[in-house]
Amino acid sequence: MIDRWSVEQVLALAPDASSATAGRKLGVPAPWSQTGALDPGEGTGGAVWGSCKGSGATPYQTVVDLSGPAFKCSCPSRKFPCKHALGLLLLWAGGAVPAASTPAPFSEAWLASRTEKAARPAAAARAGGPPADPAVAARRAEQRTARVRDGVEELSRWLHDQTRTGLAGADHAGYRRTDPVAARLVDAQAGALAGSVRRLARVAVSGEGWSSRLLEEHAMLHLLVEAHARAQELPAPLAATVRSRVGHPVRTEDVLAGTPVRDRWNVLDLRDHVEDRLVTRRAHLSGGRSGRTAVVLSFAPPGRPLDASLVPGTSVEADLHFHPGAHPLRAVVGTRHGDPGPLGAVAAETVAAAHARWAGALAADPWLPELPVVLADVVLSAPPSAPVAGTVPAQEGWALVDTAGHAVPLTGPDGVWTLLAVTGAAPCAVAGDWTPEGLRLSAAVTGDGLVRL
Question: How far apart are CA 132 and CA 151, in angstroms?
Fold first, then answer.
């Protein structure tokens, strides 16, 4: 029997806040009929279905494959999952969906196709696909390498020009200064490097002290360009890091061919980021036995479905395969050993240990923008000027302090009030991303489970 999800787990799937609100409104029995829930069994990973009365004469038919999860609804919404799927899952989470022994007729065909699709890769692997022409593959790889090299060399010349002419006025230039360079890097198939160049425009308008921060960003880009030119001389893990920071792709098949790390992986955070007409979903995982940290990324154009199989507040026994690099952090989920379950024991560390780990990570990968961490037994420390009852607190200066008295500043007030509300200022484990500016809150691990901040 599959464990019912929590409300928090369901709402974590919402593509935006308005969908979560609309889903909550539909998470009541009134608009639903023909509902049912099927436990995992022969050929199925568990499913929930139902018909939801909408504004038209015909109810919307909604089906959720819990093993993905994957969603199907007859409504015209382009959001994924739609409010009906969220409402149905909330209804199921509340125990208002009856168990069934067979799927409803309107859900049978789709669930059967899901089962068939899941079995297809294994069958294909057993049969063995046609081998790619190695000569053609090698020629394409050489062409791409040459294009990337040309793009990096052009960026090097641009950086030298910027240094020679100075950065004055960059805070008023907007994206006109960086967009042409970034576009040429995209053409050169150095997408990661293009993103770094676009960030320069945002740094230039980041407020007081922008010139120092912009100079630092230019220096890091120069370091990356020089490292890429000498990649053949670098140790293999560092060379792999440099290539990934520039944008050289790594085939998922090659990553999956590496040695897996099996563990009970707790899913602590899931966030979407939209940039350049691409949505990036980032999941923070922590190994229950190994204490190892992993980041799983998935990508899709806006409006298209992303991988929703990793739900915050759950854990899954699985093999993770890490991308090569000097500080392996990004991973691909390989074989899953069983269904997801509730959150397990979460490995946490002191502020000093996390700081030391951040230093070590930067020594290995100087371009690392953030490091997921879980801090043990920390409490909020308010800004000096706030807060007392009835006053408006300061928006900056918050920090987390552990039992040893070591503190880490927060990057901003986001999540502070939720953390105060759920902990009552009592010590608890807090997950977040350690960045050069401080810690960005993502979740609190309390006795009642995971609370996203």
Answer: 28
- Nearest partner of 94 among 191, 28, 180, judged by Cα: 28
- Separation between Cα atoms, residue 67 and residue 320, nearest integer Å: 18
Packing angle between helix 191-204 and helix 210-229, nearest 10 degrees?
A: 160
Tokens standing for 269? 């955070």
Cβ proximity of 433 and 370 under 8 Å: yes
- Measured CA to CA, the distance from residue 387 to residue 336 in angstroms comes to 47
Which pairing describes strands 261-275 and 314-322: parallel, antiparallel, or unpaired? antiparallel
Distance CA 131, CA 201 (A): 44
Q: Among candidates 107, 98, 24, which has minimal Cα distance to 72? A: 107
Q: In which band, very low, low, confident or very high, does the pLDDT at 353 lie, cut at 50, 70 and 90?
A: very high
Tokens of 87: 């409402």
Distances (CA, A) of 95 to 5, 7, 9, 28, 107: 10, 11, 15, 11, 20
Q: What are phi and psi of 220, to 5 degrees?
A: -65, -35
Token pair for residue 266?
A: 């707790």
Type of residue at 114: R
Nearest to 8 by CA among 360, 396, 343: 343
Angle between helices 179-187 and 191-204 (to 10 degrees): 170
Q: Is the pTM of this model over 0.85?
A: no
> Which domains does the chain possess?
7-103 (no CATH), 139-246 (no CATH), 252-342 (2.40.50), 351-452 (no CATH)
pLDDT in tens, 211-245: 999 999 999 999 999 999 999 999 999 999 999 99
| Sheet arrangement for strand 407-409 | 407-409, 399-401, 371-381, 428-435, 438-446, 449-452
Phi, psi of 202 (to 5 degrees): -70, -35
